[in-house]
Amino acid sequence: MVEQPLSSPSAAKMAQTVNRGSLMWVLTDPLARVTFATARLEPTRALRELGWDVTLICAGEPDLTELRGVPITAVSMPDTYLVRQLIYHWRVIQHILQDWDTLDVVMFYQMSALWLLPLKLLRLLRGGNGPLFVMDVRDLNSADGNWKTTLRASYYQAMHWLANRFADGQTTITKRMAELVGVPPQKLLGVWASGVNLDHFKQSRESRQWPAAGEPVRLVYIGRSHHERCLQPRWEAVLAANKAGMNFVLSLVGGGPAEADLQKLADQSDGGIQLLGSVNHAEIPRLLGESHIGVTSLPPVANVKFQASSPIKLFEYLAAGMPVLATRNVCHTDVTDGEPFMFWAADATCDDELDGLKDAWARR
Q1: How does DSSP classify residue 128?
Q2: What is the pTM of this model?
Q3: Three-state secondary structure along 111-141?
């Protein structure tokens, strides 16, 4: 957490609860996606070890009370578009009101701001007694999608405006994210980047066998197959590298909207490209242990959304003892520029990524 000046009553109250407090963390998604779940479950576990009383609320069937050893509170959400958020947040508000007198902080994301920030009026009516409402910004909505995606992006923009004026404070994933969404300095309580548990990847480090002469260099990408992540130029670069006499095998772990297009490339790759689909979270350390180089999302260098991110996959690959292939987007260079375990593509084009593969092949 990056320390900020305690220049407001909200920040001062947050400081008083640093060692021990009561936090309700509101999610609007089920904890089904591996990356999403890890980035919420592990901090929850760590906060509890520090003495915080954390209630982690997510969408799901109410009989789900624990995930990966972390107690959770699942709240059912209907499937009807738009209406589901209204119903879901009404149910969440009931949990907040039930614990109102013991809560110190309610933390939420952009989707929840419209529904939860009005509860500050109740705190005013009760003479200032009640929790602080803090919005955490860890991601921005994708600009690549249909009318629903466009609508959500506009909604997020409005929620940033709302939170910048009415939230008790905000936290962000990077300082660049705070600047990108315009968080006022006096509202920024802290910056907390992505992180991983090293023990989870011990198996990967200990089981890895580096490629012998004549064996392929195995690349692995774990994440969503989404067009904005520039997967197709990367896979075209692998095919070009193999055609030029190098020997790479690239495996994609995870599904997504670009999967059908990538499958066509895989079918023409003579084994150089493999689609493994979604796998159980417990299988990830084994898959990383069988691979040699981790491949991040390769966003264009000028992509401001990714510039403001903190790519958890980068840290997972490093925790697994792997070198990494990445673009020179600042989300990567801010962390690892100049390090010998990085192979760089100047940008997210086939030619640039081929240069990164040539470097990896020369140093294999």
Answers
A1: T
A2: 0.84
A3: HHHHHHHHHHHHHHHCCCCCCEEEEEECCCC
Length of the chain: 364
- Per-residue pLDDT tens digits for 57-82: 999 999 999 998 899 999 999 998 88
Environment class of 143 (CB within 10 Å of its CB; exposed 0-12, middle 13-18, buried 19+): exposed
Question: What's the rounded Cα separation, in Å, for the pair 352 and 16?
Answer: 50
Structure tokens at 302: 């000028």
Tokens standing for residue 256: 């997504």
Nearest to 1 by CA among 155, 170, 246, 250: 170
Cβ atoms of 170 and 307 closer than 8 Å: no
Question: What share of the chain has pLDDT > 70, as a percent?
Answer: 91
Note the pLDDT of residue 142: 63
Contact 364, 211 (CB under 8 A): yes
Q: Which helix (H) or strand (E) holds 172?
A: strand 169-172
d(CA 271, CA 248): 9
Q: What is the DSSP letter of 71?
A: E
Judging by beta carbons within 10 Å of its beta carbon (0-12, 13-18, 19+), is residue 185 exposed, middle or buried? Answer: exposed
